[in-house]
Design brief:
This protein has about 180 residues and is mainly beta. The chain is built from two helices and eleven strands. The chain is elongated, with a radius of gyration of 17 Å.
């Protein structure tokens, strides 16, 4: 299915001359304190659609879809538990989504990306830091941020799990 979506977007880009790109190899990592130590994990399935131009932030955008079922903490039993109702409730909410509404330049390599983040059935307006590295023919984008799991209804009332989740999304693509 992922290849079908990629093919459709690729063909659309050829016919319209769009500089929109599709990235399906982003590194999406997180960590959260659990009983005094950090539990770390990744999401291995994501799809990012972007049109990011350093010289045209007005028309630039990022859309991210993360498949919840791809969560991997290195412990299969914990991963299965994270898919259940009191955590991500993957049966009802299979994806985490982010859609930008505005991108602001703060300094040479630092930006703020504004957008809507949806986890489970909760949509929130967020502002996330975005580090951009210009590698000549390509750009590398990275966002390191902290979210409140409780604001999104993840993890119920667990008293052994921290409220704060540290996350990082990182990917690269060829310049348009």
């Amino acid at each position: 299915m992922r290849y079908l979506i990629f093919t459709i977007v690729f063909l659309f880009n050829l016919t319209t001359g769009s500089s929109q790109q599709v990235i399906d190899n982003a590194a999406i990592n997180f960590k959260i304190k659990n009983i005094g130590t950090y539990a770390k994990g990744t999401f291995s399935e994501s799809l990012i659609t972007c049109n990011f131009k350093l010289d045209d932030l007005e028309t630039s955008f990022l859309k991210v879809t993360i498949q919840v079922k791809s969560v991997d903490t290195g412990i299969k039993k914990r991963d299965k538990h994270l898919l259940e109702d009191d955590y991500f409730h993957a049966a009802a909410y299979p994806a985490i989504q982010f859609s930008s509404t505005k991108i602001e330049k703060k300094s040479n390599a630092d930006y703020i990306i504004h957008g809507e983040l949806t986890i489970k059935n909760t949509n929130k307006q967020v502002q996330l830091p975005l580090a951009v590295e210009d590698n000549g023919n390509s750009l590398s984008l990275r966002s390191d941020f902290v979210l409140s799991r409780k604001e999104y209804g993840v993890g119920g009332r667990s008293w052994i799990l921290s409220d704060k989740v540290k996350a990082q999304v990182q990917f690269s693509f060829k310049k348009p």
